[in-house]
Amino acid sequence: MNKKKYRILVVDDDKDILELLRYNIEKEGYRLKTCKDGLTAVELAKDFMPHLVLLDIMMPLQDGVETCRQLRELPELADTHIIFLTARAEEYSEIAAFDVGADDYITKPIKLRALMSRIKAVYKKTSKEKKVPDVVEINDLVIDKNSYVVRRNNKEIPLPKKEFELLYFLALNPNRVFGRDELLHQIWGADVYVLARTVDVHIRKVREKIGDHYISTVKGVGYKFDQP
């Protein structure tokens, strides 16, 4: 994908940060739009269809966590990467961000060179993504990547982005055991620091929603999707 076609949305109520990021992101050749609050971000994203969103937490009208949750509910933005860029360094804020579907969490003050390198890595990853089946059907379970919808016995089961991607990846590779580190690499990426327990939490949540019998634990090794 050409950089001029790669769309980035920056959401922050700090005018100086918006100007700093605008200058450096546009200098690299990416398409860019900015806004100062979460409500505007959701409406703007529907039209702009960003590949990447840089999102603050503390903003007027609507905070970043709720904004991320709403963005993740839009099927047309299912493949959009969302990176939190915030002064909130507390663990509970980071956990809340990942729970609503964040791909990465970066604390301020901004290390500009590192951030631009991260944007470049996400851009390259998006450009090289390979085509895989959009719909996986196993017994009574249907996993639809086009709409980010999971159905069991024709009943829709809502899943946040990372839970969906974890289930989708395991279902694409049934009966194969994956360790936590490999799942972290496949779902969260090599450039993101996430604790191994994050995988356990997401597996537990997926099981609670679709049933315990689809994903089994191989003690001391990892997890696998069971298909007879």
List the topology elements:
Layout lengths: L6 E5 L3 H13 L3 E5 L2 H11 L3 E4 L8 H9 L8 E6 L4 H9 L4 E4 L4 H17 L6 E4 L2 E4 L4 E4 L2 E3 L3 H12 L7 H9 L8 H14 L4 E4 L3 E4 L3
Parallel strand pairs: 1-2, 1-3, 3-4, 4-5
Antiparallel strand pairs: 6-7, 7-8, 8-9, 10-11
Number of DSSP-assigned strands: 11
Cα distance, first to last residue? 40 Å
CATH superfamily of the largest domain: Response regulator
Question: Roughly what percent helix?
Answer: 40-55%
Helix- and strand-based class?
A: alpha/beta
Which overall shape is indicated by the principal axes computed on the Cα atoms?
Answer: globular
The order of strands across the largest sheet is 2-1-3-4-5
C-alpha Rg (nearest Å): 18 Å
Description:
The chain has 228 residues and is α/β, with parallel strands linked by helices. It folds into two domains: 3-128, Rossmann fold, CATH 3.40.50.2300; 135-225, Arc Repressor Mutant, subunit A. 41% of the residues lie in helices and 21% in strands. The protein has helices at residues 15-27, 38-48, 64-72, 91-99, 112-128, 161-172, 180-188, 197-210; strands at 7-11, 31-35, 52-55, 81-86, 104-107, 135-138, 141-144, 149-152, 155-157, 215-218, 222-225. The strands form three sheets. It has a five-stranded parallel sheet with strand order 2-1-3-4-5, with helices on both faces. It has a four-stranded antiparallel sheet with strand order 6-7-8-9, with helices on one face. The chain is globular. The mean pLDDT is 87.
